[in-house]
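Handout, section B. The chain below has 154 residues.
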Amino acid sequence: NDGGSIPRRDELVKLKEKKQAHTLSPQDQLKLKWTICALSEEPLRKPIVADELGNVFNKEAILTALLQKTRLPAEFRHIKRLKDLINLNISTLETTEEECLVLLCPVSLVSPSPTTKFVTLRDCGCVFSEKCLREVPSSLCLVCSKPFTKVCQP
């Protein structure tokens, strides 16, 4: 041993710098979530369904994938059958463009934003702002008056 130092791997090998992926702002991510199908990446059209994890789909796209037994992407493998999905009863703003749905809370008339989260009731599929659910404590849906037990956050 001559008293020298042993170089580490990072001193000998120059690694390629990873390119940073373009990240969307939270507002843009939320806008995409409520306007584009998570599976087919097409604009959302009624009927719309969601899973327990909060992914929103065109019902036609997810049914086609389930019926054709095509392999769903890894992030959707938890969906095995139609009972794993919630049929969403959403209120939308009428627009001149048929391609873009604008979601509105039927109680407070606000749209989703990073500060306004929306929830879905598992029992009836009604979608409205989380703030409405907190401010009006009730065991009945604020939209259709059906009793509910579970709240999901799409």
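Note. The two ends are 63 Å apart (CA to CA). Compare this with the example in section A.
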